[in-house]
Amino acid sequence: MEAWEIARSLLPEPLEKELRRYPQAEEIRLRVGKRPGAVIAGREIPLGEMTVRQNDLFRILEKATGASLHTAASALRAGFIPYRGLRIGVCGEAVITDGNVSGLRSFSSLAIRIPHAFPQESAFAVEALLRPKPASTLIAAPPGVGKTTFLRELIRRAAGYFRVAVIDERNELSACYAGQAHFDLGQGSDVLVGVPKKTGAMMLLRGMNPQIIAMDEITREEDMQAIEQVAGCGVLLFATAHGRSAAEMCKRPLYQKLLESGVFETLVTIRCLGEKRVYNREALQT
Amino acid sequence: MKATGFLLMQLAALLYAVQCIAEARGQQRTLCAFCSFLEQLHGALESEAPPLPELLQALCGRFEGEVGSFLSHLCDSMDQLGKDSFQTLWQRALEKNDKSLPLEAKRELEELGSVLGRFEISTQLEAIAGCLHRLRQRAASAEREQRQQDKLTLGTSLAISLLLGIILL
Question: Is A106 on the interface with B (CB under 8 A)?
């Protein structure tokens, strides 16, 4: 089943019918008391005339979690629930326990992000990163532009020639269910799901003898430590980060450290040009 | 002939009383079994917090009688989840046990179905504990009342049949 069909299967009937008209939808936005919307090429368009009720959000989350919202508690604390390769962003009222967010309730908005297949006309951009031999690569783009999709394709192609170990902290890269990856990550890939990057890096280095380690979204200091561990063992790295360019990323201390660490040899930036994606490759000083 | 008729009347009254008592006792047993089910549900959610369908399936094998049948109906209908809400499936499974539970207890359980699986674990545990507390209270007071009710039902049935017998004879 394609991601778009999976997204449709989550929706209430009138909305599901509306979405059939938009197979190119990248996101579905549902806000209580308002009309639903679909994001296409970065723009939100109204999706039918119905008004979203809170019960509609409950029903979607109930289906996504198999009537077990508590099993998604840790993901919910991070603001979203993964569901068979989709990412359901959630807004609502935070439940605070001992000063920390322990959950969300009184849901007010959902954003269902639909991953799309990597465009074949862009395959050259991925293939070029593997020839003549792969290098440690950082993929940067603003949210929703396709960093994860690009990384997934890079892993899939690299895993045709190398042993690629994947730290899939939020189960977005593989969408593993019952031991099987929903997204094809290639013949030579091994996936570790739900483990923080720092712990996952050590587990994979010790147990799987990888030639390349891939991880999504470098956002914290601990992620930086994971990168240093991997690089210290002579293993190549594929990773993603939020950013538009090396110059812009250098304005943030974590990314400045990341770029100046000399771990990554290549930076790929992605930007939208209408419905198309433009890939820019630059060499980083190592 | 008259004596046989009189005896048959007494026997019928006795049987009626016994049937009433047995029915009430049956409801009492079902109530206690549901309490035991809620205890186990609370315990499992508190310690391991597994997915609800998985947990209900595991509990289904541990209960017989009305609770077993309720869980079996519920588990069988889980493939409808998405088309129908969990609350609807839970309510439908309770409706299959139409006469085996006192009405108020059934309402308590129906309300619990609107919380299970929908909220964070602490809210669910609170709801189960609240429901369990109320069902236990109901079971305890029903037990006290039942003892008096048993005597009253038996006495009234025999007295009416005796009276009828005397009038007819």
Answer: no
